[in-house]
Each structure stands twice: as structure tokens, then as C-alpha cells.
Amino acid sequence: MTTAEGASQFVDPLDVPPDPATPFQPRSGQRGTGFLTEPFRLGTTPSATVGPYLAIGLTWPDGIWAAAEGTEGGIWIRGRVLDGAGDVVPDAMLETWQADPDGRFPSPEDPRGASTHPGFRGYARASTVHPPGEFGIFTLKPGRVPDGEGGLQAPHIDVSVFARGLLDRVVTRIYFADEAAANAEDVVLRGLTEEQRRTLVAEPTDDGYRLDIHLQGERETVFFAV
Amino acid sequence: MTGTTSESRLILPRYLREPAEKRTPVGFPDYRSTALRAPLRTPVDLPHRLTEVTGPVLGEDRVLPQDADLTLRNGGEAIGQRILVYGRVLDSDGRPVPDALVEVWQANAAGRYRHVADNWPAPLDPHFDGLGRVVTDSLGRYEFMTVKPGAYPWGNHHNAWRPAHIHFSLFGRAFTQRLVTQMYFPDDPLFGQDPIFNAIPPVARHRAVSRYSLERTQDNWALAFEWDIVLRGTDQTPFETDDDGDVA
Ligand SMILES: [Fe+3]
């Protein structure tokens, strides 16, 4: 009936357009089914700095012994933690976690069964208080660990660094300079540049290995998002 | 090369990470100590392999019964408002984390730490060292008795005072779950000017604040504060089966 040209401007108030493909939902933004479509998750507790007084809560007399004192084949891994000005950080804490010499972990979460290597805890906690800036842990050199993709990782130690001024831990790894062949095959190291790799590789010493951790600067250590 | 042994094709959990906008950043400009310490380069993604999904077993043998009561040290009673702090350690799937080591440390009721580096003029308490250790039970529960810590000045900016807080250190089952954090008390007037609290993204700040609990407050003895701690969970669906084949 409204075929005349002049009537084409008329808007019929009852001619309601169809719903848009995404209906307006002021609260959720999407129309739900009423059922959970994703697994329910709790929000994780946010991290905070250990602050300057961590020694009160986190000092263990046996902290540095990832392997029991006197364990045969034990090595010392030492190094310093340095800040962006090149100064030593005298109030940091390092934690290390690693496999035993057979590449197994003293953890029930190891799907191959927990390591039972005598005297081996795999975990150490060291401060950089005495001497200032330097840490030292006593451990066994880890073996190679499957990378889950059919290969083997090079011997490595996972490291967490905590300190005043770090609102979350920072995570890095220690590799070993005398494992060149294994390092060349390592799935993590292969993803890094030569310059980055150097920041993770500890050099042999008389009684173990040494590696400095640079929180910032020209030689900033490679830190990992885990 | 395709491995055929069970060792080369490991089915491992993948621990979920909160998106960056809900996590505390490593560095925060208003917190001055981060300037020379927080790494400046973007961290490299490390997919979770065996080293990351396993973790040390640190349990009962590291803890004495008296470690759960910070109010009784050196043969006497600590001075201050006695409080019970309790809660559960869970992962983000809502599963309790049993047998987990929880280490806490804090200032005394006057806001002073028993530490050589803390020498602001507030009294030390001979019967308070500020160290507690507990292990979660089979349902992930923990609790300890202490005194409410005082606020303390820290020189970060003019009139910088830390809101009252208790430092917590937690191990879950895996390296990825490691957490060091601080628990706050409800409605602290010092929140607004504290960069360590405000470094937490606004959507996540409430997770760092405990709740006053009348239910657990002890008549004529101690106030109670409840705080649940949530560690990272895995990407397994909640409907996996347990060892007996039952839906867990
Ligand atoms: Fe503090």
C-alpha cells in the first residue's frame, strides 16, 4: 500500500527490526546457557616481595644442602647476584630445584616415580648475606631429563631469585659449560641467542661451578616466564 | 624422532598462569627498590617440563608443634592483640593442597622486626621473634596463633608506612606453584599510600586481604582472621578420574 515514493520516509513504529546477531547484554556481555561452559577457577593469590627481613622467616640451617653434607660427588655452585648498577645484592635468596644424577626428581609428581638417590633432596635455599652478594649451594650434578618430546634436556637446575625490590620471584636456569654436546641439543637453550645462552652457563671451578646472576644491565640474565 | 618409551612421551600437567593484568608485576615504579633490581627484558616463555611440574617434599619434619604459636617464645608471652590466622591452601581448580609447608614472618605488635636491619625506634619484644611454620592438613587447612603486627615506616616516600601484614611463603606440589606473598587485614587505612599493596592489580587486591571471622574468634582470648591462599592449578578438567576410576 505504501508504494508511493513520498511514503518511503515513513517509519512504521511496529516494524521492529530483527535482533542483532549479538544481543545487548548490559552485565555479562554475552547470553549464557546458565551452565558453566569452562571449568570453574579460583583467582590465584597475588605475589608480594619477600622484603628486607626475609631472613626471619626463611632461614634454614640446612638450606644450602641439596645433597647431604659429604655426599660423594658433591659439587658447590657459587655465584653472585648483581643489580642494574653492578652492585652485589646482599639481601637476596636463591632457591634451586633439580634432578638427581640419573635425571629423576625426589618428588611424587615425577610420573616415572620419585628419585630415591641417597642423601639427595634436590632443593636448596641460599641467601646472599655472607659474604655479601654471594650464594653457594652444595648438590650433585643433575643428569639429563626427558624433554617430553622424545629428546633429552641438558643437565640443568631451575632457580628462583627472591629479594627486596622484586615483587615476584624471577626464574632462571643454570646449565654447565662442560656439557657442550648436551647443551647444543637442549630444547630450551636452542631457543636462545648465543649471547642469551652465555648468561645461563656456569663455568667449572676447583670444587664445582660458578655463575653470576645479573638482574639488569648489559649482561642481564635470561629469566623465564613459567 | 618419535620416542616409544614411556619416558619420552610423558603426559604432564600444565600449570595455568593468571593473565598479566591480574598478576603482581615484578617491578613497580612507585616502589623504589625495584628500579635497579627488577629485570628490564621480557622474560622468555618456558613450557612446563619435568623440572617445572615437580617440586620438593618439605613437610612435617621441618615443623615443631610450637612453631604454630608465635605468642609464646623464650619462656614468656608476646605483647599485643592476640589473633588466630587460619584458612585453606587451594589450587585454582578449588582442590585443597595437603601437606604443604607454610612459612610466615612478621613484625611485632609495635611494628618492629627482630632483624639487624630494622632499627627504627619501636620496642623489641623479648617474647616475640616473628617466625611461624605450619604444614597444611589433609584438607589443605592451616592455622597459627600470633599477635597482630603493627604498621611500620620504611622511607620509600614521605610518611611511607606499610599497612599491617604477615609475610607468607608457600610450596605446593610443583616448582610452578611456589608463592611468596603478604596477607593484609581488612579496611587498613594505610592501603591507599602503599605501593607494595597497590602494585597488585585492582582486580586482584582483595585476594591479599584477610576476612575478620567472628565464627573462629575465641571468647575472652583472640580475634580470628581467615585467609585462603590459592596456588596455580592445572588445565585438567575438573572431571578427571582418580586412581579408582571414580569421578573426582
Ligand atoms: Fe614486612
Automatic annotation (TrEMBL), chain A:
Domain Intradiol ring-cleavage dioxygenases: 75-205
InterPro entries hit by this protein: Intradiol_dOase_C (IPR000627), Intradiol_dOase_core (IPR015889), Intradiol_RC_Dioxygenase (IPR050770), Protocat_dOase_a (IPR012786)
Keywords, sorted A to Z: Dioxygenase, Oxidoreductase
Any one Pfam family match given in the protein's UniProt record, by short name: Dioxygenase_C
MF-aspect GO terms: ferric iron binding; protocatechuate 3,4-dioxygenase activity
Region of interest (Disordered), ranges: 1-40
Annotated family: Belongs to the intradiol ring-cleavage dioxygenase family.
Protein name: Protocatechuate 3,4-dioxygenase alpha subunit
TrEMBL record, chain B:
Positions of the Intradiol ring-cleavage dioxygenases domain: 85-113
Record carries keyword Oxidoreductase: yes
InterPro entries: Intradiol_dOase_C (IPR000627), Intradiol_dOase_core (IPR015889), Intradiol_RC_Dioxygenase (IPR050770), Protocat_dOase_b (IPR012785)
A molecular function (GO) term: ferric iron binding
A Pfam short name: Dioxygenase_C
Biological process annotations from GO: 3,4-dihydroxybenzoate catabolic process
Ranges that cross the membrane: none
UniProtKB keywords: Dioxygenase, Oxidoreductase
Record-linked PROSITE patterns: INTRADIOL_DIOXYGENAS
Family, similarity comment: Belongs to the intradiol ring-cleavage dioxygenase family.
PANTHER family reported in the protein's UniProt record: DIOXYGENASE, PUTATIVE (AFU_ORTHOLOGUE AFUA_2G02910)-RELATED, INTRADIOL RING-CLEAVAGE DIOXYGENASES DOMAIN-CONTAINING PROTEIN
Name under which the protein is recorded: Protocatechuate 3,4-dioxygenase, beta subunit
Lineage: Bacteria, Bacillati, Actinomycetota, Actinomycetes, Geodermatophilales
